[in-house]
Amino acid sequence: MASRAATATAAVIRSFNAEFISFGYTGAIGPYHWGSLSPDYYACSTGKLQSPINIIKDNAIWNPKLEPLTRYYNSANGTLVDSGFNIQLRYDDSVGGLIIEGKNYTLKQMHWHTPSEHTIDGIRYPVELHLVHMSKDGDIAVVAILYNLGHPDPFLDQLKNPFKELTKEVCSGDEEAHVPVGLVETKSIKRNTRKYFRYMGSLTTPPCTENVTWSILGKVRELSMDQLVELRAPLELDYKNNSRPTQPLNGRHVYLFDEKYPNNLFGSGASSNNNNSGDDNDDNDDRSVP
Ligand SMILES: [Zn+2]
Could you tell me where the Acidic residues compositional bias lies (predicted)? Predict the structure, then answer.
């Protein structure tokens, strides 16, 4: 099992390396060819549990066994890295992680995709953030947050200068462009989540490793146009659009955790939530942790 954990670690924490740059998002090295680029990438074409997917809200199955998404991130030192195919913020283990079904997963890195990889009812969003976690025995859990354009995102706000520095380093031809960020405040990414979608999938980049536990938050957040430009700036032109097309479900179910669903189900009309906006409840899914 040690080797499996080691393989998963290598997939999750990749350093800048030419062999990993041999895949892309267009042409002969694009997503439809990933499976044939390397024997290590077979799962990209033959796997049956691939990500991302289109989530159809009406088909998501409310699962009373799902628990609130317990995240216990601490502020920790991070390093912003240009992996070539996306920009990652890597952490040391002191950042903490999350618990799923009693199992601990440590946050290893987060990175951004533009536009989003997962779609909701066919809608693709401008940005998707992936928080990549791994357990001691090599299991991977990813939390995905979708973003619309709007107000600035407070989490990205603190990375404004590091993103600029990283862009400068890349432009100066530094092969291993990375910028130590210092202490990263994680408060804004661990807000409690009232609603999320859960399914079993894969990494969305080669080697497309499967049995990844996905949690896609129901709340769509916002970032500003300036921030969108900033987070794409360090990437080469061919990697500025770095989202893999959606993959077939192949009979998989998407489960729904929704704090308020039991009320609705039994028609108590309790409406203990404060959603009175009249829309489809997605605007009030998060609440701040006290
Ligand atoms: Zn990703």
Answer: 279-290
